Amino acid sequence: MDRGREILNRSGIPTFETPERAIKAFLHMGSYAHNLKMLQEIPERLPRDLEFDAHGARKIIQRAIDAGERLLSEDDSKALLSAYGIPVGATSTGAPGYELMLGAGKDPGFGPVLRCGLGA
Fold first, then answer.
1. Is 76 within 8 Å of 60 (Cβ atoms)?
2. How many contiguous H segments (helices) and E segments (strands) does the chain have?
3. Looking at beta carbons, which pairs linking 31-36 to residues 24 or more positions away fall under 8 Å?
4. Which of 11, 58, 82, 85 has the largest count of CB atoms under 10 Å?
């Protein structure tokens, strides 16, 4: 058995101790191939004349700070995203009483983080 593995390994053919390890390696290869394909996709071309309403965004954020709010309302969140050219579609949670929340924080390992999602 060891002689056969040695011949295969010398020829560049991988060998595994258990079938589970072989399956795991096969799945990693599939994931790797998928990730390579995703990396090679060409993103849509952005217009060269990007315009941002930084003044409007500052007003939205300052209004929330002055009101002592830690989270933006759905309307303010959408207005803020729109001010930076991020398209915002109509949202419907299907459950009354939920709002779109947008917050900022700092992750110790990553740095600044923008959080957005549904809140109660």
1. yes
2. 4, 2
3. none
4. 82
First to last CA, the chain: 62
Q: Which two tokens stand for residue 9?
A: 């390994």
The pair of three-digit structure tokens given for residue 40, joined into one six-digit string: 């090679």
What are the backbone angles phi and psi of residue 10, rounded to the nearest 5°? -65, -30
Residue with tokens 């109509």: 90
- Beta carbons within 8 Å of 70's beta carbon, 6+ residues apart: 103
Question: Would you state the structure tokens that stand for residue 67, as one six-digit string?
Answer: 């009101």
- Residue 114's SS3 state is strand
User: Could you count the other beta carbons within 10 Å of the beta carbon of residue 72?
Assistant: 23
Q: What does R_g of the chain's alpha carbons equal in angstroms?
A: 25
Along the 120 residues of the chain, how does pLDDT read in single tens digits? 788 888 998 999 989 988 899 999 999 999 999 999 988 887 777 667 777 889 999 999 999 889 988 888 888 888 998 898 887 776 555 556 666 677 777 878 777 777 777 665
Tell me 44's DSSP state.
Answer: P
